[in-house]
Structure formats: C-alpha cells, structure tokens
C-alpha cells in the first residue's frame, strides 16, 4: 500500500486537525460473521454501537458496517455524531437516548429488527414508534448536524446515508 494520499470524488477541504494515530483494537475478540447464526451480547464502544446490538437482536457484519459509518461521519465533521451518549461527553451511556437519536436521523427501525430484538419493548411501542420521543433534541437532524458540507454535496450525502 505505499500510497500516502486518498482520492476523493470531491474536495472536502483540509483536515480540521490531526489528532494522532488510529489504532484498530480487539482482534483477539474478533469473530466471523458469516455463520448460520448471528452472535449475541454487547459489543462495540457505546457511541459506535449498532441498533441491532442495543436491541439484542444478534449481530453480524452489519454491526461493523454501522460502526464504520459513524466513524466516517465523525472524521468528516471532526466531532462525534452521538455526543449526547458519548462517555467522553456525558457521565453515563444511555441506550434509550442513543436509539432515539438514531431514530431521529434514520426514522423507525425496520420491522424485522424490532420483531427480533429481545429488548425492543424497552425502547419502542408495538407500532414501532419510540417509547420516549422527548429524548430527541428538536434540532437533531442530518441537516443540522452536518457542518462541513453544503449545497448539492450535503443533499447527496444525506440521501445516501438515509438509504
């Protein structure tokens, strides 16, 4: 991999700041996700935790893709998307608020996810709406959380993420 550059489809500008080295950890805890059964249990740093993990539905590679997506957003914006549940910014992780924030951005989770989640009833009503919608800050939307893009790039990015 000798290249020291990244090719971009569009110029997003210079990095906001260099924060240090990136480390990939926990390889000793890695499990394959292509088996016939999803894995159970709590994984991932709270701020990067996938909805299926919070709901205890069982997880596979999709949980890793979720984490990667949130990390890429964090790199793009230079701050944490889910600061309200980040242990670096709040005293305690609050999974109900985390799911509320995710729901605010992406809409209700798919019915299949809600039906299979062992903890779904703690957070969602039977119709798929949040038990406690007041946990969503009024201004928490993709439009308001993305500051480092504008115009057509921002619109396309939001459309892509919400698919």
UniProtKB/TrEMBL annotation:
What GO molecular-function term can you cite, just one? protein serine/threonine kinase activity
One BP term from GO: spliceosomal complex assembly
Instruction: Report whether Oxidoreductase shows up as a keyword of the record.
Output: no
- Report keywords, A-Z: ATP-binding, Kinase, Nucleotide-binding, Serine/threonine-protein kinase, Transferase
Q: Which InterPro entries match?
A: Kinase-like_dom_sf, Prot_kinase_dom, SRPK
Start and end of every Protein kinase domain? Answer: 1-163
Q: Which reaction does it catalyse?
A: L-seryl-[protein] + ATP = O-phospho-L-seryl-[protein] + ADP + H(+); L-threonyl-[protein] + ATP = O-phospho-L-threonyl-[protein] + ADP + H(+)
UniProt-listed Enzyme Commission number(s):
2.7.11.1
Question: Entry's PANTHER family?
Answer: PROTEIN KINASE DOMAIN-CONTAINING PROTEIN-RELATED
Name of this protein: non-specific serine/threonine protein kinase
Q: Species name for this entry?
A: Trichophyton rubrum (Athlete's foot fungus)
